[in-house]
Amino acid sequence: MTEPEVPGRGSPSGRHRMADPGEPPSVRPYAPDHIPPRSAHQLALETLVSTTDLGYRLRRLLWEQYARVCELCASTMSVVELSAHLGLPLGTTRTLVEDLLAEDLLRAHQPVGTYDSEARTVVLDRVLDGLDRLY
Fold it and tell me: Which residue ranges form the domains of the chain, and what is each CATH number?
């Protein structure tokens, strides 16, 4: 008869052993989450999202994370900013945003970089006009 295997003994690093009760998890907080994209394309980091009127009205009825996204996006922000505010990995944030976009609770806005050069010039002119009005 063989001896029962003791967790952690067969592996010098102890990677394959069960964690002791009360021991903090060994997963690094910056580890990639490997959530597969739900749509054919992933949202760009700079994609701007905002809450629709429907999303704002229904935010109190949503699961906590979805409600938080709707509250934060009441003022338009990028996906990467949203991820930082939520304290969640980017893949998880993208999944939340894609779910809310599918239900028309969020609206995605094209990043300025995807506009043609004439549209970019118009945006930059508006920014400069706004800065001029500050002085």
Answer: 48-134 (1.10.10)
